[in-house]
Specification:
Number of domains: 1
Number of strands: 0
Order of helices and strands: HHHHHHHHHHHH
Distance between the termini: 18 Å
Shape: globular
Number of helices: 12
Radius of gyration: 20 Å
Length: about 350
Amino acid sequence: MNATSVLVLGIAFAILAGIMSGTFTLPMRYLGRWAWENVWALFILVACVILPIVIVSATQPGFIDVLANSPQRAVAMACVSGFAWGFGAIMFGQGISAVGISMGNTLVLSISAALGSLIPILLLAPEQLHQTQGRVILLGTSIGIAGIACCGYAGFLRERSQKDEGDNMRGGMVGQARPFGVGLLLCAGSGLLSAVFNIGYSSAQPVLETAVRMGHSAFAGSNLIWLLMLTSGAVPNFFFCGYLFKKNDSWGKYAVANSSQLYILAIIMGLLWGGNTFMYGFASPKLGKLGPAIGWPLTLITGLITANICGFLTGEWRLTQLKDRVWMVAGLVAMLAAIATLGWSSTFR
């Protein structure tokens, strides 16, 4: 496979990862018969424990040896950043329940895209900031952030247009209603901690390099990083869900009548989000040395476009005014331009 084909494949899988990321919260609109902790605990179990173990076992059966030979600082960075990201995951789940799919994803991804793209450049190749590829990455990220800002403003306009509807707009969304300001703070905190996810992946690249030196593929090396990060991130999520199970006496909701559909939807959530992470891990090495800086905003922006389309289709923009939707469309157009720019940046070496 020539270099151009590898780049195209990397871009395609980064976009596919974004689509999976943008749709994984959609089942939350139909899980209202369970408490939030019932949904989130099963989701985390599938996405952050079961799926990583299965994939690593299939792609890198000798992963214990790889870890033993990897720089321990890189292993520690993966675990610590994954643990920190776990708190951001909690905030994300609570924030989406509070403000909806499109608005929640807009706020979270805007902050995460800005920090998660720029910091890897500083960590991996700061000299690139003054070269063509680095400048094009900065341009693409800036266009994406501008588009996200348009979507964010559209979200505020939407909230004002729908202020008299209240809980009627939530439909079957899992979780409890919260003041809009609380939802915004949760999403902002999640965005800050979500950026740590890509920073941790960038800092743990020596683990991937060790795997390659030992005869494994770059994809297998990426999977090992995700295993470290995701299982570490699962810890605070399980503790928080355990606290809510005890507080709300909600463990028994797993046994509600006709709950098979609820289990299926929560498992689909886990497979979509976990799958998107490994898709990103497959795409990133194919985008060159600055793969994390290119693939991260590419995936996030695609995810945001997808999440907003889901929001439109599920009625989150019902009863809004024309100008609200115009701002949203303008943001989506800008983000499509950002995707094209970031894809173009990967052609520079």
